[in-house]
Amino acid sequence: MNRVFIIDYVSEGDCLFFERHAGGEKSLLIHIEKFLHSEQEDIHEFSELAQASGVEILDLLSVKGDQPNPRFFISSGKVKDITNRVQLLCVELVLVNGILSPTQERNLEREFKCRVLDRVGLILDIFAQRVRTHEGKLQVELAQLEYMSTRLIRGWTHLERQKGGVGLRGPGETQLETDRRLLKIRIKSIHARLDKVRSQREQTRRARTKAEMPQISIVGYTNAGKSTLFNRVTDSNVYVEDQLFATLDPTLRRIDLPHAGPAILVDTVGFIRHLPHRLINAFRATLEESVNATLLIHVVDASNEEKMEHIDQVSLVLQEIEADHIPQLLVYNKIDKISGIEPRIDRDAAGVPQAVWLSSLNQEAIPLLFEALSERIAQSLSYYSLKLKPEQGRLRSKFYELGVVIQESYLEDGQIQLDIALPKTMYDKVMMNDAYHIS
């Protein structure tokens, strides 16, 4: 876990130091029970988040929080009980499964005499550990700085008062004001660099659009098995681990779909309930890979008892990034953990695939996914029936190379009838590059 979360640079050579307790490995988890189910956080998911950050969990306490205490978020009586528990176990870090205000976080630290981190801070820390690409690091830093900007109240308190007299006059602003100004400068700089990244991504997307290559993005709740499925489909080795947010950086690979031709498959960051809004904004450049997709593969952990709630949470994030209008193919993964469920395709009344049940650990089930994807992508394709002369074998080979041939038959006059399906732009490009006339 990143123990220096309270120290971060804002420009070369500058550091921001906060008068806060240092974090540690030995942690106490506080889960807040809420009356409204829609606002309730999952205690098991909270524990998994803590484990994903790399801390040592000493204890997990559950307290009621229907009416948050404005000073501590939890009742003052519970604060005293937890303080005793913290001292008894020598806790170094307290994690709270809720969103604390800066004041509540400081007050709890003053009582516990140790570092306190809320749900947003915990997720940010995990992201900081896992991100690998330059773009991802910028996105995480932006989210961290925006999170920290509201927690500068106690920064550099020994310099908040300016002194008078010759040689002792201040620079015209308190150190706290200097910290805030430097933070704003750094945040503005990161926004500018991310705008450049978005521009570069947009150019790449335009190139893919020009080539009429369909894009399929994998979305879903975190730890639903998206990266494992991605590796199976593309024969890749994207990092896979049975933990939350194992994948943060998007990965793109080309795949060839039977009777539908080539497509781009994208593995994206997993979603989670009550995903902090600042994270959605920071990772908007990455999430735009889903916004511009032709089809979304919505991966669901079929063995999870809360799978329907997870589907709803993913739908909410897709709605927030304005990707809820894109067609979806549900993939119920991990059926190997459920008895009596065999791989299959669920279709609607018109016979269009709506869901695929499979286990990404079973390679034999993957052809079902390819079948469903081919049918869904084929709906946006144009169909052609060509008669090729014997000397046009090069053109025939090109269509087979693209994987767009639906059916082939030989006519009595020696010609070949080829039924194909592919985007019109791709068809025009192939025909333009071929010198033979098509009858």
Overview of this protein structure:
This protein is of the alpha/beta class. The protein has three domains: 1-211, Rossmann fold (3-Layer(aba) Sandwich), CATH 3.40.50; 213-378, P-loop containing nucleotide triphosphate hydrolases (Rossmann fold, 3-Layer(aba) Sandwich); 382-433, Alpha-Beta Plaits (2-Layer Sandwich), CATH 3.30.70. The protein is 38% helix and 20% strand. It has 13 helices and 14 strands. A seven-stranded mixed beta sheet has the order 6-7-5-8-9-11-10, with helices on both faces. A four-stranded parallel beta sheet has the order 2-1-3-4, sandwiched between helices. It has a three-stranded antiparallel beta sheet with strand order 12-14-13. Strand 1 (26-33), helix 1 and strand 2 (56-64) form a beta-alpha-beta unit. Helix 1 (43-53) crosses helix 4 (119-130), helix 4 packs antiparallel against helix 5 and helix 5 (134-148) runs antiparallel to helix 6 (175-210). It starts with 25 loop residues before the first strand and ends in a 6-residue tail after the last helix.
Output the keywords.
439 residues; alpha/beta; Rossmann fold; Alpha-Beta Plaits; 3 domains; seven-stranded mixed β-sheet; four-stranded parallel β-sheet; 38% helix; 20% strand; elongated; disordered N terminus
